[in-house]
Amino acid sequence: MTFSSPGGDASATRFRIGTAHCDLIACVLVRKGETHRLEPRLAGVLHLLARRGISPVTRDEFLETVWEEDGSDEALNQAISRLRRLLGDASLIRTLPRIGYSLSAPVERAETLPNPAPTSPFQAWLRTGLGFIQRPFLTGLAVGVLVTALLASVFWPRTLEQEFEIFTGELDEVGVTLPDETE
After folding, report:
1. pLDDT tens, 57-73?
2. Which of 85, 110, 123, 153 has the greatest number of CB atoms lying within 10 Å of its CB?
3. Where are the transmembrane segments (predicted)?
């Protein structure tokens, strides 16, 4: 069943757009066997587009419905851009200049989501490792700590040894003797 008309089934929370399957209650989108989490506002934008189908949704309507009072055009632009990437086909969301956005493909209701493709332990590890790289602050912090630790381990012991040699060598040359602690 498709619900691409303005009078479509507004209660539908599981649907398919192109090759992507969406579950708005679980806030997930599955495409090519990969599951992607949807932030609540991103899910709201997708739900509004799916309810309208090929009919346009105005920018003001997105901002009022999804963001309420703290939305901006830039936030909407970023959400649409992210949805286009997640859907895997930028042409699925049409930009209507001075109006808003609409879907260019019919929305089909889905009862269940496809099972994600099985992954090996290495693929799972690789996916979580690459997720770390997508967080620039944490990546920068980790690299900074590693570089600091490496530099400290390389230069710190040599610096202490050199200072100790200079200190003890100067005393012997000058003829200074240290008093014994027993006196």
Report:
1. 999 999 898 888 788 88
2. 110
3. 137-156
Rounded Cα–Cα distance for residues 87 and 20 (Å): 6
Please, what is the Cα angle at 59 between 57 and 64, to 5 degrees?
A: 95
DSSP state of 120: -
Alpha helices in the chain (DSSP H): 40-52, 59-62, 73-87, 121-133, 136-174
CB of 119 closer than 8 Å to CB of 127: yes
**Whether the Cβ atoms of residue 107 and residue 48 lie closer than 8 Å to each other:** no
Task: Identify residue 59 by its one-letter amino acid code.
Answer: R
Give Cα separations from 108 to 16, 50, 158 (angstroms): 5, 9, 69
Asked if residues 17 and 107 have their Cβ atoms less than 8 Å apart, the reply is yes
Determine the Cα–Cα distance for residues 177 and 116; give it in Å rounded to an integer: 77
Residue 106's nearest CA partner among 42, 16, 35 is 16
- What CATH code is assigned to 14-118? 1.10.10.10
**Whole-number Cα distances in Å, 93 to 85, 100, 102, 104, 139:** 10, 10, 6, 6, 33
pLDDT band (50, 70, 90) for residue 8: very low
Chain segment 89-140, per-residue pLDDT in tens: 888 999 999 889 999 888 888 766 565 555 556 555 555 555 555 567 777 8
